[in-house]
Write a structure and sequence with these properties.
This protein is of the alpha+beta class. It has a single domain, classed as 3-Layer(aba) Sandwich (Aminopeptidase), CATH 3.40.630. Strand 3 and strand 4 form a beta hairpin. It is globular. The chain binds coenzyme A (COA). Coenzyme A (COA) binds next to strand 4, helix 5 and helix 6. Coenzyme A binds next to strand 4, helix 5 and helix 6.
């Protein structure tokens, strides 16, 4: 299986599999109420829980790829995560992202997601990438649209309305 632990480099960002040193940043990320508002995920309980999640993240071994830590090249700071996750229940690959609040509004999520999508098609050989978002999450919907994903219906999960966006290889090729 090829090793996709090192992800794409962009003008401002590096992507790599998360390491134990990222635990503090992910604890901060996953305990910020504004960040977690539309994720439908519980907050992390402690830095130890954050570390355990990093140490027990199986996707690079089991699937071959996964979410990466986003590192700001100018400072070396971990500003969040982005990347591709295979969702077995839906049999689909999802592009996802979550950034520390102080780094919102500078185009980082779009930059990271475009690079992740390009990596998925060009390096992993995917045929289709989806994005799932709550209808209230306007910033995230905007990111998906800027990356070329198009609305493709909705469904309900745990009582929440979830919008599905997709881009396939033909759509990706047409963007270039
Ligand atoms: C979603 C998130 C990653 C966006 O990060 P970001 O780096 O600020 O995103 P970008 O700057 O690349 O793009 C955001 C776009 O949405 C727009 N936007 C931001 N808030 C908005 C709002 N409330 N309504 C409409 N558009 C909005 C921005 O103007 C920008 O578009 P522009 O470049 O055309 O101006 C960030 O807000 C975040 O981490 N949110 C919490 C986690 C989350 O919700 N993740 C996604 C789950 S599906």
């Amino acid at each position: 299986m090829s090793d996709h632990r090192i992800g794409p480099e962009t003008e401002r960002l590096l992507h790599r599999a998360s390491i134990p040193e990222d635990a503090e940043a992910f604890f901060k990320l996953n305990t910020d109420i504004e960040v977690m508002r539309y994720t439908a995920e519980p907050m992390l309980e402690s830095v130890e829980a954050s570390l355990a999640r990093i140490e027990n993240y199986p996707d690079f071994e089991t699937v071959g790829y996964g979410r990466w830590s986003c590192v700001l090249k100018s400072t070396g700071e971990v500003i969040g995560f982005c990347g591709l996750k295979y969702l077995p229940d839906l049999d689909v690959v999802d592009v996802g992202y979550r950034l520390l609040r102080e780094h919102w509004g500078r185009g980082y999520a779009t930059e990271a997601s475009r690079a992740s999508i390009a990596y998925g098609f060009d390096e992993i050989g995917l045929e289709r990438i989806a994005g799932f978002v709550l209808p209230e999450n306007a910033a995230s919907i905007h990111v998906l649209e800027k990356c070329g994903l198009q609305a493709d219906g909705e469904f309900e999960e745990d009582g929440l309305r979830v919008l599905r966006f997709v881009i396939d290889r033909a759509g990706y090729d047409a963007l270039r």
